[in-house]
Amino acid sequence: MTGRNPLILVLLAVILGLLPSCIDIHEEYWLSADGGARAELIYQFPKAAAAPYGGESGIRELIDSFLKDTPEITTTTRSVSTQDDRIRVHIVATVRSAAALEKFTQPATIGKLPPSATHLVGDIRAGLHGRTLHFTRTITPSKAFPGASLIPASRLKGHRVLHIVHLPAAASESNATRTAHSGHTLVWDTPLATALKSPVVSRFQMPLPIPWGIVSAIAAPLAAVCGFIVFRFRRLGKPNHLSR
Predict the structure, then answer these.
(1) Rounded Cα–Cα distance for residues 36 and 32 (Å)
(2) pTM of the model
């Protein structure tokens, strides 16, 4: 083995470590009408893929550091554990407002993650055209897990990249694999074998719902003003018996 590039040996070790196990990604998001969001993220991947980051404890430290430096995210659950030959990461988090959600998706925030994780977060593009939200997200699992494309097809079978989004209003257009709840729930279900060959794109358009909290906040003082004006006009319209 002498004379071989040590980097090649490390890469081979990582690839061989990937072979006995595989990767599963499950992400589910609940978006609210006021722009906040709740997310449940479950990632399962071979222990060998975590070796460059210090294994299970290193992954835990990376996640804790990112969450600490990202106050826009309120974490309710965070666990990192080893099950058989795979590491399982489970995070339940909340982003409380649209402004916080926008800040979280900025490159300066995403850039705090290790390179492999940024490929799982992906490239996020969101914008308003009139009152319609246009959203596109592109992730590249093959870059997040180098060497995974060499896993035999027999070991990829049954493993998936699953993204689920629950919207406050029905989507007017999407490329989702399937929909539920009259278009309020979009599901992108991609076999891992497909996700390792080309980027996974999730896209939807949604008309912005009326934020009833804001409507109530506006309606209450407006109703009070209108009531006062009506009251004044009624008073002015009454005959003044004292002037007789």
Answers:
(1) 5
(2) 0.75
Pairing of strands 24-31, 160-166: parallel
- For residue 145, the 8-state DSSP code is S
Which burial class, exposed, middle or buried, applies to 136 when counting CB atoms under 10 A from its CB (0-12, 13-18, 19+)?
Answer: middle
Predicted confidence at residue 217, as pLDDT, reads: 45
Which of 51, 50, 42 shows the shortest CA–CA distance to 24? 42
Residue with tokens 């061989």: 16
188 beta partners: 163
CB atoms within 10 A of CB 172: 12
**pLDDT confidence band for 214 (50 / 70 / 90):** very low
- Residue 77 pairs in a beta bridge with 92
Contact criterion met (CB below 8 Å) for 120 and 43: yes
φ/ψ (deg, to 5) at 186:
-115, 140
Q: Which of 96, 92, 142 is nearest to 122 (CA)?
A: 142
